[in-house]
Design goal:
92% helix, mainly alpha, 0% strand, 2 helices, single chain
Length: 73
């Protein structure tokens, strides 16, 4: 019986508890005016900022390289 509890019943109970916990968190977000779309929008905005920053770093590296080569001549 203990083996069945450990292999089947306990994981099922933990899964149900996790689902209820997730539902409580989602409900709290919605009550606070936040929803999944809010987070998706925020992620897209941050990804865009990261891409812009990477692009700026590349441009700066190229400018430094160009300036260094010009100085050597």
């Amino acid at each position: 019986m203990s083996d069945i509890f450990e292999r089947q019943i306990k994981p099922a109970k933990n899964g149900i508890k996790a689902a209820f916990d997730d539902q409580k968190i989602l409900k709290r977000f919605r009550q606070d005016g936040l929803d999944e779309q809010h987070f998706r929008t925020d992620v897209k905005r941050l990804e865009s900022e990261i891409a812009d920053t990477i692009s700026n770093i590349s441009h700066l590296k190229a400018a430094i390289s160009h300036a260094t080569e010009s100085y050597k001549k």
